[in-house]
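User: Here's a structure from my thesis project, written as C-alpha cells. My advisor, Dr. K., wants to see whether a designed sequence matches the one we expressed. Can you design one independently, without my sequence as a hint?
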C-alpha cells in the first residue's frame, strides 16, 4: 500500500481516540515554539500536522502565519472542520513531505512524528534538502526515542538518540536543546519520544 493510501485509510476509519499520537495539549511543541525569538507574524510550518491540535494552540497564542502540511487530505479536512471559521486563518497543504515544493521560507519548522516514518536514506535526504532550502530560523523535530516503539500505525519507524538526531540536521543547523517526552496515548499506554530544537547556522558556518 502506498504511503498516501495508508494514511487516508487511517483517517477515514479511525477517530482521534483510536490513534496513538493524539495529544490534547502539545505542551512540548508549544514550549519550544514560544521560546524562539520570532514575531507572531513570522511563518510557521507544521509538518505532518494532520488533525492535531498544535494549530489550535498557536492560533490561540496569537501566531498569524501558520501552515499545516499533511499527506492525508482527510486529516486536513478534520482539522478544518474542528477549527470552523478559524481554519481560514491557516494555510493547508496536502502533500507527501518528500515531494513538497516550498513556495516560501519558514521561521519555524515543526515536525512531531513525521520524520521518523522516513526509514530510507533516499526519503530522509529528500526531507533534509527541503528543510535546508526553506527554513531560515528554527526546527523542532520529535521522533520515537531508542526506548520508544519500533512501529506506529503498522509502519516501521526509525528511532533516534540525541546524537543521531543531531547528525541528521547538523550540516545546516545547530542543536539547541534535547528533551525527552513520555507520551500517554488515548488507550493508556506510553510512548517515549525525543525532541530536538535546532537553529539555522550562519551562512559562513555552513
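Assistant: Designed independently from the structure alone:
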Amino acid at each position: 500500500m502506498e504511503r498516501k493510501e495508508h494514511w487516508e485509510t487511517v483517517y477515514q476509519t479511525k477517530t482521534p481516540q483510536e490513534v496513538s499520537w493524539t495529544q490534547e495539549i502539545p505542551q512540548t511543541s508549544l514550549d519550544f515554539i514560544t521560546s524562539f525569538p520570532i514575531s507572531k507574524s513570522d511563518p510557521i510550518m507544521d509538518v505532518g500536522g494532520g488533525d492535531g491540535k498544535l494549530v489550535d494552540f498557536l492560533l490561540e497564542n496569537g501566531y498569524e502565519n501558520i501552515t499545516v502540511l499533511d499527506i492525508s487530505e482527510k486529516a486536513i479536512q478534520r482539522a478544518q472542520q474542528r477549527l470552523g471559521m478559524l481554519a481560514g486563518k491557516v494555510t493547508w497543504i496536502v502533500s507527501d513531505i518528500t515531494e513538497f515544493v516550498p513556495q516560501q521560507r519558514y521561521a519555524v519548522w515543526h515536525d512531531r512524528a513525521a520524520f521518523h516514518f522516513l526509514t530510507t536514506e533516499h526519503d530522509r535526504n529528500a526531507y533534509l534538502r527541503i528543510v535546508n532550502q526553506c527554513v531560515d530560523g528554527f526546527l523542532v523535530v520529535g521522533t520515537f526515542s531508542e526506548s520508544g516503539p519500533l512501529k506506529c500505525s503498522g509502519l516501521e519507524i526509525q528511532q533516534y538518540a540525541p546524537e543521531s538526531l543531531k547528525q541528521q540536521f547538523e550540516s545546516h543547523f545547530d542543536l539547541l536543546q534535547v528533551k525527552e517526552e513520555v507520551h500517554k496515548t488515548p488507550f493508556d499506554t506510553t510512548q517515549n519520544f525525543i525532541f530536538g530544537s535546532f537553529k539555522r547556522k550562519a551562512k559562513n558556518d555552513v
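When you compare it with your expressed construct, this may help: The chain has a mean pLDDT of 88.
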